Structures are given as C-alpha cells and as structure tokens.
Amino acid sequence: MKLIGALLIAAALIAAVAPPSEAAIGCGAVVSYLNPCLPYVTNKGPLGGCCGGIKGLYGAAKTTPDRQSVCNCLKTLASSYKGVNLGKAAGLPGQCGVSIPYKISPSTDCSKVK
C-alpha cells in the first residue's frame, strides 16, 4: 500500500512536468512511470533510474488535460501518503532536468496548470 502511494506521488510529479494533450493520463500510468522513484522519495534508496520515468511521463503528457490529470494524481498521492518525502518528490523534475510550471504540492491548484 505504501509502495503504491509513493508511486502515485512520483507519477503525479512526473505528469505535472509533461506538456498538454487531448486524452488525460490516468494515475495508473503515472505510477508506472514513477515506480523507479519510490525508493528515493521514501528515503530508502538512491535516485537510480527515476529520471528515465520522469522524462517518459513528461513526454507522454502532451495536452493540458494530461498535465492536469497528472497534477491531480500527484496531489492526491502527496496528501494521502505519509511515507513520501515531499521535498524530494517536489525536487525530482529539477534533478532530472525537466521543467514544470507548478510546484508539486498537496496545495497546488491543478485547474490552473496549462
């Protein structure tokens, strides 16, 4: 359960970095992309292959609905999963060389993400 929560948060972070597209990306896809980030954001391992997932999610989220979907998924995960280091999760895009137009945080207004 903790692993899934952490993955969802990581996925949401990555999706938030992605450009807009027509079809929204589901939380399941976000979790798949961000699964390699789980050890890092839960303080149990190194960054490892996380950036590949972050960049893949960024590339997949091409529309505004995609980005908003990823943002909402990450936001939900960030606010519901207590084992994730929110500072590390928020810093993932920058560490992986991806720039997103919002902060990965439980307080982010995903409706304003473009």
From TrEMBL:
Superkingdom of the organism of origin: Eukaryota
- A Pfam family recorded for this sequence: Tryp_alpha_amyl
Q: Which residues form a coiled coil?
A: none
Matches recorded under SUPFAM superfamilies: Bifunctional inhibitor/lipid-transfer protein/seed storage 2S albumin (SSF47699)
Q: Which GO biological process categories is it annotated with? A: lipid transport
Output one GO MF annotation: lipid binding
* UniProt keywords, alphabetically: Lipid-binding, Signal, Transport
The chain positions of domain Bifunctional inhibitor/plant lipid transfer protein/seed storage helical read: 27-110
Q: Tell me where the signal peptide lies.
A: 1-23
The record's function comment reads:
Plant non-specific lipid-transfer proteins transfer phospholipids as well as galactolipids across membranes. May play a role in wax or cutin deposition in the cell walls of expanding epidermal cells and certain secretory tissues.
Q: Which family does it belong to?
A: Belongs to the plant LTP family.
Descriptive protein name: Non-specific lipid-transfer protein
**Annotated source species:** Salvia miltiorrhiza (Chinese sage)
